[in-house]
Amino acid sequence: MLTFDSPVFAAYALAASAMVLLAVATAWITVIQMMRHKAGYRAPEDAKKTPLNPVPAEGQVGAFEPVERYRRIMANHLENIPFFLVVGLLFVLTGPGLVLAQWLFYGYAISRIFHFLAYATGQIHDIRATFWTIGSVIIVAMAVIVLMTALSSI
Hints:
Layout: H1 7-37, H2 65-92, H3 98-120, H4 125-152
Helix pairs in contact: 1-2, 1-3, 2-3, 2-4, 3-4
């Protein structure tokens, strides 16, 4: 069941890997924003003269919106993606049909990618919230199915 011979597991693995890559990419984008703007550093030692920061300047440490935007996106990933990783794997163990699993796994991944894009481009809250809600409903649906399956096995 938890092998790549299982199309349901393979669908989960695809979506889960995409979510991990999205989170890692967001971390890298945060670093790129800091380096690009030479601002948004977190610790005082980050603003010292180094090969990567040859001309330290006042104000490099502290909040800087282009960096903070990606930090908020990353925080949102860390508040949501782990739930998908856990409940998605448990959902695979319920033996769902492939089409349902693909809809849920890919629907979640797509909703998170669109949430990322909406947040990164400064779209209004309603757009971001719509994509977040889609992902959240998918997680709840999978959790309910896992719960019902587990209860029926007791």
